[in-house]
Amino acid sequence: MAAQKFYNIKKRESINVDEKNCTKVIYKTKTAKGIQEHYAIRAKDNDGTSLTKFISKPTFDALKCPVSKK
Asked: Could you read off the pLDDT tens digit of each residue along the chain, which spans 70 residues?
């Protein structure tokens, strides 16, 4: 499993989280041109901080972590 790099704002440092502890999320936004999708991965740090990292669609498709219902 590959580790994903997140930035923890509370600790002010970058941390690595195992891909198996991440979930994939698709955020949908309604715009004048239609529905826009943003791809992200989410995880929790050991101190309970929620971590989110926005990624590209090809990276999103390549990850093997489960998709969250949001």
From this structure: 588 999 999 999 999 999 989 999 999 999 999 999 999 999 999 999 999 999 999 999 999 999 987 5
State the sign of the Cα–Cα–Cα–Cα dihedral 23, 46, 8, 10.
positive
- Say if 68 falls within a structural domain: no
Number of structural domains, the chain?
1
Which domain range does residue 14 map to? 3-62
Six-digit token string for 38: 């943003």
- The total number of residues shown for the chain amounts to 70
